[in-house]
Every structure is written in C-alpha cells, then in structure tokens.
C-alpha cells in the first residue's frame, strides 16, 4: 500500500510556482484544500486523480512512495490507489444498497462470505456519518444526498480500501463532519478535503491555500486553532439547527441561540 504521495511543484495561472518545490503527504494525514472560488482547488484534486506527470496545465508531477505511478496501478481500477468523491456524484444503478455493495466487494476479489462481512462493516461505517439511517434494502437511487455521500465515503474507505481519498466539497451534504473526521483519522489513510468549511479546515492537520491556480501557502494547524475548533463547531451546530428550524417552517426564538451558549 502507498504510504506517501509527493506533489512536485507546478505553477499557477499567473506563472508563479507552487509554494514548495516538493510537498509530501503521509499516511494518516487529513489535508484541507482551501481558497476562494476559482482559486484552483479542484484543479489540484484533478492533478492528483490523474496521476499528473507534467502533462496537465499546471505542470505538476505526482510521486507515490517516491516513484511515478505504475502502469498497472494507473490502468487497473481494482489497483487504483485513489478514490474521488464529489458533491455531484449520483448513482446510475437502481440495485438495493446491499446488492450494490456486495457486487463491488466481489469485484474486489473477495469471496461471498468475506463480502458479506465487509458489506456489513461498510453500512455500519456509513450510518455513523449520516443522521439518516441507510437500510440495506433501499435502492441506490432512493438515497438522499447525505446518505449518498456517506455511503460513497464508506465504500471508498472500507471496500475499495484505497490509501488516498479525495473529497471535493462533500461536507455540507448531510454528513456529521466532526464524527466523520474522527472515524477517518482512525483509518490511517491520506484524506484530502476540498472545503469551505471552517470546522473541517481546523480539524485537519494542514491547509493548502490556493491562489491563482497555485499552492500559495501550506499552513500547519497550530495549537491555538485546535483550541478554537470546539467553539467553531458549536457555532456551526447552532447555524445548522437554525437552518433546520427554518426549513421546517418553525419560528426561531432566543432559546434556540441560548441552547448553544
């Protein structure tokens, strides 16, 4: 399994190089990619997913444990070390959830008995990420946005077992973000979030700051930011609570605010 990926510097739209000639990301790290709209966040994710080798507009190169990706890992979906999950992902399959997951597990060269165990683990993992329980008998196309994202994250982490998981702005789709980050950290993968979410950013190990298509800065999450993270989470929970009350057609009262003070 890949234990480290390295991003060798490319350049932004302004011709300026990335902030570091070589950026190493190690197994177990959670990385946030942040920046304004159009700053190059998704472009960076695409470079990683495409195993960039100086052949993308940014000129970046990717190394896996110090080497370019092998032809076998690049061309064989079962060996691909990267899983990408986006906010726009939808299912074309109309299979029940358990049948879909079992089929995927069998494709990954697992026996029927082993597949049953890993499907149960995947569903348990997914149901810890979303407040809407995912039932095995529900059809894939009937899942909500939050359930879909939770199932995809669980599928990539448990069934695919890929060492690198890229998540492009999925955190606002019904996912319990604090719980998700706790669970993902235990899995010892390299998780890279494209995000606008302060909670996700502050709970990450490092933030890659994008400007004009380049990595302008790399910030380590420091001790003060870690101390502030719980307060930021409470503010975010309060806003989510107010949003749900308004969606349900309810009135907002002072008590709704005081509940989070």
TrEMBL record:
Keyword DNA-binding assigned: no
One GO MF term? ATP binding
- Keywords, ordered alphabetically: ATP-binding, Hydrolase, Nucleotide-binding, Transport
Q: Does the keyword Transport apply?
A: yes
Specify the enzyme's EC class, one word: hydrolase
Task: Tell me which family the UniProt entry assigns to this protein.
Answer: Belongs to the ABC transporter superfamily.
Source taxon at top rank: Bacteria
The identity of this protein, by name, is ABC transporter component
Q: What is its EC number?
A: 3.6.3.25
Q: Give the Pfam families listed for this entry.
A: ABC_tran
- SUPFAM superfamilies in UniProt: P-loop containing nucleoside triphosphate hydrolases
Q: What positions does the domain ABC transporter occupy?
A: 2-237
InterPro entries in UniProt: AAA+_ATPase, ABC_transporter-like_ATP-bd, P-loop_NTPase
């Amino acid at each position: 399994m890949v234990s480290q990926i390295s991003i060798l510097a490319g350049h932004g739209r302004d011709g300026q190089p990335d902030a570091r000639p070589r950026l190493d990301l190690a197994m177990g790290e959670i990385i946030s990619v942040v920046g304004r709209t159009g700053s190059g966040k998704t472009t960076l994710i695409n470079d990683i997913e495409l195993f960039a080798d100086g052949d993308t507009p940014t000129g970046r190169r990717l190394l896996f444990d110090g080497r370019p990706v092998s032809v076998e890992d690049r061309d064989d979906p079962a060996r691909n070390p990267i899983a990408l999950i986006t906010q726009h992902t939808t299912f074309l399959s109309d299979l029940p959830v358990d049948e879909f997951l079992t089929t995927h597990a069998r494709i990954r060269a697992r026996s029927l008995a082993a597949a049953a165990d890993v499907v149960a683990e995947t569903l348990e993992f997914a149901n810890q990420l979303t407040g809407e329980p995912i039932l095995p008998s529900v059809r894939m196309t009937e899942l909500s946005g939050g359930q879909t994202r939770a199932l995809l994250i669980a599928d990539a982490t448990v069934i695919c077992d890929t060492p690198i998981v890229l998540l492009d702005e999925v955190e606002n789709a019904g996912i319990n973000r604090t719980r998700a980050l706790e669970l993902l950290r235990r899995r010892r993968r390299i998780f890279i979030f494209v995000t606008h979410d302060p909670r996700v950013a502050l709970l990450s190990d490092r933030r890659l700051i994008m400007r004009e298509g380049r990595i302008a800065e790399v910030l380590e999450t420091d001790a003060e930011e870690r101390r502030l993270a719980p307060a930021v989470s409470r503010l975010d929970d309060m806003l989510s609570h107010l949003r749900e009350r308004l969606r349900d057609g309810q009135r907002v009262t002072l008590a709704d605010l005081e509940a989070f003070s």
